[in-house]
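New to this. Please check this record:
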Amino acid sequence: MRLEIFQLVNSIELSLTKPWASKGYWQEIVSNVFDFTSIMKKYSNYFEYTNTNISLHDSKNPARKPSTNCNIILIPKCNENIDSKYFQLNFDLINKELFDFVDLNQYVPNEPTNKHQFICNL
């Protein structure tokens, strides 16, 4: 589709270089057509960008690898009293090796709002 749009745009722009388009009374139309072809080029680029993102979104393969696209943030230990809803998570974290993967989904509530609150209040 993108190639077809570019071919159409180039064809239109090429026709505007013909001698008839240089007449004074065509100047406003020619200017507007060039604006239109510029918009078509931008749309074509946007169309390609969107299609690429959609194909990544629908792909079964991850777009990123956790081993190369991962940020690790070290957080100091909390010395305050821990809320009882975090006891199990705290216990499991204490018993894990440093940098072991922890799947929070097993600790958080299923309901999205409660899940968000649980994580925000960690």
Observations:
- The longest helix spans residues 27-58.
